[in-house]
Amino acid sequence: MPHSLVHVVDDDPAMRDSVGFLLDTAGFEIALYEAGTDLLDRLVKPARGCVLTDIRMPGIDGLELLRRLRGRGHTLPVIMMTGHGDVPLAVEAMKLGACDFIEKPFDDEALLQALRSALDRGGAAPAVDPTLQEFIRRVGTLSERERQVMDCLVAGGSGKEIGRALDISPRTVEIYRAKLMAKTQAASLQELVRWSVLAGLA
């Protein structure tokens, strides 16, 4: 695998150790950091590999770390680890140039796949990804209400918040959500958000 070094940034020692163990077992080269400042201090150009960072950390959070990396000219692919309900933060991270985000608690294989994908393409999302083109086509098949619900979901709205905004019951929101997930073929909210951002729909 090209440049299989993963820079793991997480202020939680248990999380850092468990991710480090998983990646080491899977054959990745790893470097562990307790804080974003540690990574910035130790990273030299041309840096290789990719960065896997928690989005919520004391001091420099994941978003600020991403801004500083890009500000210093580092083009490493960056994957954000987000907590449940951090959809707005994940969207902001993707707009700042993160190549992916993964929600905790994550499936080991999903994390490994995200890292392999980031390392393989060096962080640059393909301009005309057939999967994205197909996603955009599927979004075009949504009804006006389904698209409204999708936009609210991608913006991080809860069922209750979306219901209030659109003047429908949370139960109706769930029905529209199920329909739009089926039509777009997004396997999860995370995938829906990622595709929406990459497709320029968020």
UniProtKB/TrEMBL annotation:
Gene3D superfamilies: 3.40.50.2300, Winged helix-like DNA-binding domain superfamily/Winged helix DNA-binding domain (1.10.10.10). Residues 5-119 form the Response regulatory domain. The keyword RNA-binding does not apply. CDD domains: LuxR_C_like. The keyword tRNA-binding does not apply. Keywords: DNA-binding, Phosphoprotein, Transcription, Transcription regulation. Coiled coil: none annotated. Pfam families: GerE, Response_reg. It comes from the Bacteria. Residues 135-200 form the HTH luxR-type domain. InterPro entries: CheY-like_superfamily (IPR011006), Sig_transdc_resp-reg_C-effctor (IPR016032), Sig_transdc_resp-reg_receiver (IPR001789), Tscrpt_reg_LuxR_C (IPR000792), WH-like_DNA-bd_sf (IPR036388). The modification 4-aspartylphosphate is found at residue 54. Signal peptide: none annotated. This is Two-component system response regulator FixJ. It comes from Methylobacterium goesingense.
